[in-house]
């Protein structure tokens, strides 16, 4: 039933029905995706994935009707989607949605770009498909979470597959039956365990690539008549019963038809956050608080710090890694993020990449991180997931205390990053890119996606 409702929404949606705010946010998310994935292509996990795919299937040129691999040439849409998904998620700088607890941009844009290039589509169709992917992914994420996440699943890898399939279905102009089969197939090939995230491995990046890949694969399988279970979401042995059990129980207490009718078409892309710092989103409110406090203290000296107390919600409090061994694990470490900023007064990606090379810097930050105490706050937990709050207190010289509480980290709808902010983010990540090319996004509706993406394959 849920799949059928999702499929009908995808098939029926017309570009003219999408409000301007959603379209403009879609363009902003695209700009963000381009900057993050282009730079992300140079990360270690991305390089390994690129080497692997090139070794297995090779690459080609645009003349071969292939799709852009960010900064790495061209390949078949299936593999380009896979790689660009990994690239987009590798920096921990991609967009996200709080309640759905997923990163939609890293799973929706890769297949949209690849299929649009393959089919020589214009920007209007591209944007229309993106809206579909975000909408289906976020609505399903809101149904499944927080219970899906609490059972150990990473929504970007699970629900993200269905969001990817929704985008592909719209681009391929599939009918209701075909679209239903695509989403049903996506619901049985999806995967992604949070253990990969919190163990600090590259498996987290794979989740996004896998979602993008499977969305394309299932899209073409469904187009060609491959069938899937329409009951894959709410069935007795379906997605919710197996991977979000309490969410399925909650559905019994609501009118599902009414709920979906009210949710689908709100264009939830408008509620997506954009990230300022290359760390797990659950760390951002604490970072914002520490930055606010440090800005209030004149002649700040880290040697005067006795300790830093962080009171925050449960998930954030569990990011208490004091001895990160990998870059991926460091990005999940709240004590290191705080110590990193206090030590360097900024959070540059380049400095993060140096930290395991410069052993002296690593030890200094590690020693400072031991002064960071993390406390679970029931008061702030009650605000989650609508607010990811953190109260930070710094004690100096055993006497002075400075405190600041962030309820909504920078980049949310209530505290948005502007278009200028995202352009500056792009420039910082990719200083040698001809950013004037990005102006075309302003009129993306009239642009040819294949032509637009040529600049990004270099």
Keywords:
alpha+beta; single chain; 23 helices; 60s Ribosomal Protein L30, Chain: A; about 55% helix; 2-methylcitrate dehydratase PrpD
* Overall morphology: globular
What percentage of amino acids are in beta strands?
A: 5-15%
Largest sheet: 4 strands, mixed
Count of the domains: 2
Structural class: alpha+beta
CATH topology of the largest domain: 2-methylcitrate dehydratase PrpD
**How many runs of DSSP E, i.e. beta strands?**
6
Please give the CATH class of the largest domain. Answer: Mainly Alpha
Q: Total number of helical segments? A: 23
pLDDT average, as an integer? 95
Written as H for each helix and E for each strand, in order along the chain, the element string is HHHEEHHHHHHHHHHHHEHHHHHEHEEHH
Oligomer: single chain
Q: Could you estimate the helical fraction of the residues in percent?
A: 40-55%
**Which second-level CATH architecture of the largest domain applies?**
Orthogonal Bundle
Question: pLDDT under 50 segments (min length 5)?
Answer: none
The N- and C-terminal alpha carbons lie at a distance of: 44 Å
Give the topology:
Layout: H1 2-12, H2 20-40, H3 44-57, E1 67-68, E2 74-75, H4 77-89, H5 105-119, H6 123-144, H7 147-150, H8 159-171, H9 176-189, H10 195-198, H11 203-223, H12 239-243, H13 245-251, H14 256-263, H15 284-296, E3 305-312, H16 314-317, H17 327-330, H18 334-344, H19 349-354, H20 359-369, E4 372-376, H21 378-381, E5 390-396, E6 400-406, H22 419-429, H23 449-453
Parallel strand pairs: 3-4
Antiparallel strand pairs: 1-2, 3-5, 5-6
Helix pairs in contact: 1-8, 1-9, 2-4, 2-22, 3-4, 4-5, 4-11, 5-6, 5-8, 5-11, 6-8, 8-9, 8-11, 9-11, 15-18, 18-20
């Amino acid at each position: 039933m849920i799949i059928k409702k999702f499929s009908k929404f995808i098939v029926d949606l017309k570009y003219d029905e999408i409000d301007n705010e959603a379209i403009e946010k879609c363009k902003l998310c695209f700009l963000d995706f381009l900057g993050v994935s282009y730079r992300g292509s140079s990360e270690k996990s991305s390089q390994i994935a690129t080497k692997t795919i090139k070794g297995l299937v090779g690459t080609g040129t645009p003349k071969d009707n292939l799709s852009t691999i960010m900064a790495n040439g061209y390949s078949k849409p299936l593999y380009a989607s896979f790689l660009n998904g990994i690239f987009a998620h590798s920096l921990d700088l991609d967009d996200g949605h709080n309640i759905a607890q997923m990163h939609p941009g890293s799973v929706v844009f890769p297949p949209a770009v690849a299929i649009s290039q393959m089919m020589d589509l214009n920007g209007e169709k591209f944007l229309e498909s993106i809206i579909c992917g975000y909408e289906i992914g976020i609505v399903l994420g809101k149904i499944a979470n927080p219970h899906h996440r609490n059972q150990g699943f990473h929504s970007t890898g699970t629900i993200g597959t269905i969001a990817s399939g929704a985008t592909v279905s719209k681009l391929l102009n599939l009918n209701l039956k075909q679209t239903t089969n695509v989403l049903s197939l996506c619901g049985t090939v999806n995967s992604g365990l949070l253990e990969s995230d919190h163990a600090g491995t590259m498996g987290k990046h794979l989740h996004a690539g896998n979602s993008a890949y499977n969305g394309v694969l299932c899209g073409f399988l469904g187009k060609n008549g491959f069938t899937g279970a329409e009951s894959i979401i709410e069935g007795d042995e379906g997605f919710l019963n197996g991977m979000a059990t309490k969410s399925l129980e909650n559905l019994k207490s609501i009118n599902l038809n009414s709920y979906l009718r009210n949710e689908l078409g709100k264009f939830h892309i408008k509620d997506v956050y954009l990230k300022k710092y290359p760390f797990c989103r659950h760390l951002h409110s604490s970072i914002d608080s520490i930055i606010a406090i440090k800005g209030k203290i004149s002649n700040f000296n880290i040697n005067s710090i006795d300790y830093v107390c962080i009171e925050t919600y449960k998930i954030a409090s569990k990011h208490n890694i004091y001895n990160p061994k990998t870059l991926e694990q460091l990005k999940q470490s709240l004590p290191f993020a705080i110590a990193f900023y206090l030590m360097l007064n900024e959070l540059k990606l380049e400095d993060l990449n140096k930290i395991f090379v410069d052993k002296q810097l690593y030890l200094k930050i590690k020693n400072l991180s031991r002064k960071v105490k993390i406390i679970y706050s029931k008061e702030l937990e009650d605000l989650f997931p609508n607010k990811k709050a953190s109260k930070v207190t710094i004690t100096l010289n055993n006497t002075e205390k400075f405190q600041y509480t962030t309820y909504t980290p920078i980049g949310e709808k209530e505290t948005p990053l502007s278009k200028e902010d995202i352009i500056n983010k792009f420039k910082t990540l990719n200083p040698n890119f001809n950013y004037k090319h990005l102006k075309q996004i302003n009129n993306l509706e009239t642009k040819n996606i294949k032509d637009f993406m040529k600049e990004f394959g270099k």
